[in-house]
Design brief:
Layout: H1 2-5, H2 9-22, H3 27-39, H4 43-56, H5 61-73, H6 77-89, H7 95-107, H8 113-126, H9 130-141, H10 148-161, H11 166-189, H12 206-209, H13 223-239, E1 243-244, E2 250-251, H14 254-265, H15 267-278, H16 280-288, H17 303-311, H18 313-336, H19 340-347, H20 358-382, H21 390-399, H22 402-408, H23 414-433, H24 438-446, H25 456-476, E3 481-484, E4 490-494, E5 497-500, E6 503-506, E7 510-520, E8 527-536, E9 541-549, H26 553-570, H27 572-584, E10 589-591, E11 594-596, E12 600-606, E13 611-617, E14 621-626, E15 629-634, E16 641-645, H28 655-666
Helix pairs in contact: 2-3, 3-4, 3-5, 4-5, 5-6, 6-7, 7-8, 8-9, 9-10, 9-11, 10-11, 11-19, 13-14, 17-18, 18-19, 18-20, 20-23, 23-24, 24-25
Length: 667
């Protein structure tokens, strides 16, 4: 040990090895050898030494301290936590052990903030230290916890121990900068949130009600003093129509007034009632729903209450039920009135209840948040039948403050947050699957970016959804073409429609299409003429035509092919649907020599002397593109054929698509 204490670790290891050879049944020697090996980073050997010690004696506290030290060096957080928890189970943990266990939980993946706080708080209770309170502040201020008022209290407790603690001063200043403006706004918005009729529902202070303020030491109240106070109270009730003037004219039932005597005579209850009475913001919250208790103020630091909560768990149990019920009332009202700053302050900390009563705190909020999720669910269901626009969804989210409220919700509402995202995702999926609109799907998903959920897992899932939809959109838009016919004439064909200079035709207005290539000249000196024409419902035309020589033909044909491909991808569908609707409605449509009807295609063919009228049912129609012509023929009747120029005949290019659509419809 002298070698170890003097820093001669290598010698300590050698002496330790000699010692265990002489005394192999000494668990103490094996432990000390393991500790020395840890110090010089011979971790595998240290593991074996500590295992030998454990086999000889498993209930020694220093074994678990050394094991935790070893796991820390191995960067094995789970092992360190296990070792320190075993030490804690022995009931011999020191404040430093508890703090280290808190750090391990804090640094685990994912962090266990609840456990970290539990052990930081225990450490500070066993032996108050600036580091323990500072660590509590770090957890409270983490974005996934976001209890800034609690963080401020933790930093202030650290500074109460050491006013010159620089890290505490720096973090408190940053936290105060966030909380002070919020407190000013919330204070104004909370006016009228709780009405007089709501006062004293869940808590009545014996000290306030019996007017015992003048007695400084609540622990020394005598029975006669209480009797006199009770007599004054009953006289006030009798003379003031059952109301108590110093309780804001609250109508106090006599039976409730009489019960106060028992509360004040019970020593432990009197102690806790006194603690509440001394903390005026806490008292006014419990009795009148005043939110000052939750607001940061340089003038309000509930240090004594915080110490009592840590030192006497019974105080938290005493507060828990009335506090949680009052909290539920105030929070529910704040959500109903969309008082966002008040909601934020209520979630910022100083929620002094037992874990078992958290659900009481949030019962009203759960219902109101659940109602919002249900309304989004209804939108998602509608989205399967019709397109729900981004504007419609934006309006709903804004009018109901959904985004702002959900961004403020703590981890207790993670299920509701997940459900909300699931419904918005479902709506986005419907936009794509049911309505083939990837852009609308992306627009709906983009609304999720306004949500800043504290769940890392939830945010990760949203990121994956964005990547997926971006891939789908990129795939859907890969056929878009953007060209320029001179500096003043951009020519674009996109999912939205066609742009020709200053003209723009939305895709749904497209009515007629034609295009083609004409080759003139002689071999070796060919000239290529490209024509591309799009007409809308109003009869306006967008035309692109140009010529090129053989030398530039490959490049220009590639441009032309990209235009045709874009047109088929984004513009042809509207034109086909319009023709299909006319045919289904019993009308006929002329495309060159062909007359289209719901039953099939009619055209004339040249006989020996006269033309013959032909009719080919859709199931018998065959189409083929040959030399710039769309050839229409009968599958079963040889020679029954006609053709239309793709370049010169409106919608001739659509005949193959119409044949397929009508054949399926007739089938």
């Amino acid at each position: 040990m002298s070698c170890r204490d003097s820093g001669q670790q290598e010698q300590a290891v050698e002496f330790g090895k000699q010692a265990v050879r002489l005394h192999p049944r000494s668990d103490w020697l094996w432990r000390e050898l393991g500790n020395a090996l840890i110090a010089i980073d011979r971790l595998d050997e240290a593991e074996k030494s500590l295992n030998n010690a454990l086999n000889l004696n498993p209930d020694v506290e220093w074994h678990w301290r050394y094991t935790a030290k070893l796991r820390r060096k191995q960067k094995n957080l789970e092992g360190e936590i296990e070792a320190l928890e075993n030490l804690h189970a022995l009931g011999v943990t020191k404040a430093t052990d508890l703090n280290q266990l808190g750090i391990a939980y804090h640094n685990s993946k994912p962090p266990n903030f609840a456990k970290a706080l539990e052990f930081y708080r225990l450490a500070a209770t066993v032996d108050p230290d600036t580091a323990y309170f500072f660590n509590m502040g770090l957890v409270f201020s983490h974005s996934e916890v976001s209890q800034d008022a609690d963080a401020a209290d933790a930093y202030r407790r650290a500074l109460a121990l050491n006013p010159n603690y620089e890290s505490g001063r720096k973090n408190l200043a940053a936290t105060r900068e966030k909380l002070s403006p919020l407190a000013a706004i919330a204070r104004r918005m909370a006016n009228g949130l709780i009405q007089k009729g709501d006062y004293f529902q869940f808590y009545l202070s014996p000290f306030e009600t019996l007017q015992l303020e003048k007695f400084e030491n609540a622990e020394t109240l005598d029975v006669k003093m209480i009797q006199r106070a009770k007599k004054r109270l009953l006289q006030e009730i009798e003379l003031n129509d059952g109301k108590v003037s110093w309780l804001d004219d609250y109508a106090l039932d006599k039976s409730r007034a009489l019960a106060l005597e028992d509360e004040i005579l019970d020593e432990s209850k009197r102690h806790f009632h006194s603690a509440v009475f001394e903390n005026k913001p806490l008292l006014r919250f419990l009795t009148r729903g005043d939110i000052e208790h939750f607001l940061y103020s340089d003038d309000y630091f509930p240090q004594r209450s915080l110490e009592l909560l840590d030192e006497e768990p019974e105080f938290r149990a005493f507060l828990s039920k009335p506090f949680s019920k009052q909290y539920n009332l105030v929070l529910s009202r704040a959500i109903e009135q969309r008082a966002l700053p008040v909601i934020e302050t209520l979630f910022d900390g100083r929620r002094w209840v037992n874990q078992a009563d958290e659900d009481i705190c949030f019962s009203g909020a759960y219902k109101r948040v659940g109602d919002l999720v249900q309304q989004i669910r209804a939108k998602a269901a509608e989205g399967e039948k019709r397109k729900v626009s981004v504007r419609e969804l934006e309006d709903f989210l804004r009018q109901n403050s959904v985004t702002n409220i959900f961004n403020l919700l703590p981890t207790a509402f993670r299920t509701a947050q997940s459900e909300l995202v699931a419904e918005i995702r479902q709506l986005a999926i419907s936009c794509y699957n049911e309505h083939s609109d990837a852009d609308l799907s992306r627009g709906v998903l983009n609304l999720c970016k306004g949500f800043q959920f504290k769940s890392v897992e939830l945010n990760k899932r949203l990121d994956e959804d964005f990547k997926t939809i971006e891939q789908k959109i990129a795939e859907e838009r890969k056929a878009e073409v953007r060209l320029n016919f001179g500096p003043e004439r951009p020519f674009q064909i996109t999912k939205e429609g066609i742009k020709d200079g200053a003209k723009f035709f939305p895709a749904h207005t497209i009515k007629d299409l034609r295009w083609g290539i004409t080759i003139t000249g002689y071999t070796g000196a060919e000239r290529y003429e490209y024509v591309f024409v799009v007409k809308n419902d109003a009869g306006d035309t967008a035309t692109a035509s140009w010529k090129t020589s053989k030398a530039d033909e490959t490049k220009q044909t590639d441009h032309f092919s990209s235009m045709v491909n874009a047109c088929l991808s984004y513009l042809a569908e509207a034109a086909v649907e319009k023709i299909q609707r006319r045919l289904t409605g019993g009308n006929t449509v002329l495309i060159g020599p062909c007359t289209l009807s719901q039953q099939g295609i009619s055209f004339q063919t040249q006989g020996f002397l006269f033309k013959k009228d032909r009719f080919v049912p859709w199931a018998d129609v065959s189409t083929e593109i040959r030399n710039g012509q769309v050839v229409v023929s009968s599958k079963s009747q040889h020679g029954v054929t006609t053709s239309a120029s793709m370049k010169d005949t409106d919608n001739a290019v659509l005949l193959p698509f119409l044949r397929s659509v009508m054949e399926k419809q007739r089938a």
